[in-house]
Amino acid sequence: MGTAEQILDELRHLPPALQQEVLDFAHFLRKKNEGAEEESLILAQQTSLQGIWDNQDDEAWNDVSAR
């Protein structure tokens, strides 16, 4: 029996209120995982673009205040 089947078997033995808690927790874990994937992509983009962002020609713009 796979993990998903084991989880379903356990859920069948829980009262509806606890089943809802498990569902909420599963949603939380999925969103947390999606956020981790997004952070990895952002880091990869920052790393690959670092050479483009940090260059002598654009140094003058570093001290300009944002409005």
Identify the overall geometry.
elongated
Task: Flag low-confidence runs.
Answer: none
Largest pleated sheet: none
Assembly annotation: single chain
N-C termini distance: 59 Å
Structural class: mainly alpha
Record field, number of beta strands: 0
Estimate the strand proportion: under 5%
How are helices and strands ordered from N to C? HH
Mean pLDDT: 86
- Work out the helix count: 2
Radius of gyration: 23 Å
Helix percent reads: over 70%
Secondary structure layout:
Layout: H1 3-12, H2 16-53
Structural commentary:
The protein is mostly helical and 67 residues long. Helix content is 72%, strand content 0%. It has helices spanning 3-12, 16-53. It is elongated and about 65 Å long. The model has no long low-confidence stretch (mean pLDDT 86).
Question: Tags for this entry?
Answer:
67 residues
In brief, what are we looking at here?
The protein has 67 residues and is an all-alpha fold. Helix content is 72%, strand content 0%.
